[in-house]
Amino acid sequence: MCKDLPPLERAVQFHGHVCPGLLMGVRVAEFAQKHLGVNQDIDEELVAVVETNSCGVDAIQSILGCTFGKGNLIYKDYGKNVYTIASREKNRAVRIAQKYRDINSPESIRYRELNSLSQLTDDQEAEREDLLALIFENTMSAPFEELFDWQDIDFVFPEKAQIRATIRCAVCGEGVMDSKATESVEGLICKACLLAKEG
Questions:
Q1: Is residue 87 a contact partner of residue 72, using CB atoms and an 8 Å limit?
Q2: Domain shared by 45 and 108, yes or no
Q3: What is residue 137's predicted lDDT score, i.e. its pLDDT?
Q4: Same domain, yes or no, for 113 and 45?
Q5: What is the mean pLDDT of residues 129-141?
């Protein structure tokens, strides 16, 4: 992925297409950069805590550089379009929450209806494209405070990611990070085997 691309193009390239959720994530990422006075993360200078696994998270990854692989993207399965972005260097964090009313505009509701159909007629496809253009314009041009609430918060930074040893699970034989293995009568086992035994 080309880092010289503008943020929106970088997010679209990473995600694969333009959609309303991705646009919201772009707005969040750009606001966080400006508000915190930071650039794209290189080595865990930033931490992102996301409370959803929806499209907007791809914008956080591609624009801010926070990823699961680097250990600075933390996912909380709350189903909320809420993002906390924190800077280690600035010792600051901002929590950004998408406003509820903006998620349920008539355009968004109709767009989701059309997207849920397995096959679209030519007229429906044209309507969907027109709706996406309208949503794009509304999302990218609206004042940030119309779309989101935000507040600076205190933030406890997690330890930076560490390279851990891999051990062999005593049950399935697959490799597992030593810090994620659990002692059992068979020896050290992975979480999947532990859950299978308990289930």
A1: no
A2: yes
A3: 94
A4: yes
A5: 94
Phi, psi for residue 98 in degrees, rounded to 5: -70, 135
Query: Cα separation of 26 and 35, whole Å?
Result: 14
For 171, the domain range is 166-198
Residue indicated by tokens 């956080």: 60
Looking at the chain, how many residues does it have? 199
| Bridge-based pairing state of the strands 82-87 and 46-50 | antiparallel
Asked whether residue 161 is assigned to any structural domain, the reply reads no
- Mean pLDDT in residue range 123-143: 94
What number of other Cβ atoms are within 10 A of residue 95's Cβ?
17
User: For the chain, how many structural domains are there in total?
Assistant: 2
Does the pLDDT value for residue 102 go beyond 80?
no
CATH of the domain at 125: 3.30.1330.130
> How many Å apart are CA 181 and CA 191, to the nearest integer?
7
Whether the CB-CB separation of 128 and 115 falls below 8 Å is answered with: yes
Of the ranges 81-85, 99-103, 120-124, 189-193, which one carries the lowest mean pLDDT score?
99-103
Pairing state of beta strands 166-168 and 187-189? unpaired
Q: What is the pLDDT of residue 198?
A: 84
For residue 57, pLDDT over 80 is answered with: yes
Burial (CB count within 10 angstroms: exposed 0-12, middle 13-18, buried 19+), residue 24: buried
| Residue 2 confidence (pLDDT) | 57
Question: In this structure, are 99 and 19 located in the same domain?
Answer: yes
- Look at 153 and 160; give whichever has higher pLDDT: 153
